[in-house]
Amino acid sequence: MVKVKLLEETTDSVTLQLEGIDRSYANAVRRFCIAEVPAMAIDDVVILENSSVLYDEILAHRLGMVPIRTDLERYNLPEDCDCGNPLGCHKCRVLFVLDAKGKEKITIVTSGDLVSEDREVRPVSESIPLVKLAVGQSVKLEAYARLGRGKEHAKWQPCTVAVLTDGKNEGTYNLMVESAGGLPAGKIVLKAIDLLEKKLKQIQVSVAAGSS
């Protein structure tokens, strides 16, 4: 009989004790937490103006690595969206605007300067440095965030840590997941289990169809 015991939970991390399941299945849940659960991240950046010392590519890379709060109920993965538009729509992308100018000796532009068209989809922290501007320098851009999976790029990994260890009792395992901040840690685990179950059912259907 499968038993799951909650050992510790905060907004950012959760530790579960798993009993009555094979280690390979527990490890599959861990891997799905990292690679399959979607998360929101900036993917396309249109640089309108950049007189900072950073190249456009470096600035775009920094924007992509900013953790963003994710809403899996209101947004679709681009491949699952019915818009069929390669540029996306309001159901599969979120627009951010950055318009910053160097006004002091050194102005530090942070993730808090990004203005989102959706209040609920915003950087997890407002204090992540993006670029430094000297007086007279400026950065103006549009950035588009979308859902993606960690198996495509690390910026879409919803968790920073997912570890499976042996429990105190034989046949038990402890799964610890630490969120990057976009999704609650407990939700990442539940979504991973849901996605894993769907994959297994697809395999079951395919095998049944192949053997009939």
Description:
The protein is α+β, with helices and mostly antiparallel strands and 212 residues long. It has helices at residues 23-35, 56-64, 185-211; strands spanning 3-9, 13-19, 39-50, 94-101, 106-110, 115-116, 129-134, 138-148, 159-166, 172-179. Helix content is 23%, strand content 35%. The mean pLDDT is 94.
Blueprint of the fold:
Elements: E1 3-9, E2 13-19, H1 23-35, E3 39-50, H2 56-64, E4 94-101, E5 106-110, E6 115-116, E7 129-134, E8 138-148, E9 159-166, E10 172-179, H3 185-211
Antiparallel strand pairs: 1-2, 2-10, 3-8, 4-6, 4-8, 5-7, 9-10
Helix pairs in contact: 1-3
Quick synopsis:
By secondary structure, the chain is of the alpha+beta class.
Q: Beta-strand level of the residues, as a percent range?
A: 25-35%
- Helix tally equals 3
**Strand order, largest beta sheet:** 1-2-10-9
Class of secondary structure makeup:
alpha+beta
Rg, Cα atoms, Å: 21 Å
Straight-line distance between termini: 31 Å
Instruction: Return the string of H and E elements.
Output: EEHEHEEEEEEEH
Mean pLDDT: 94
Helix coverage percent of residues? Answer: 10-25%
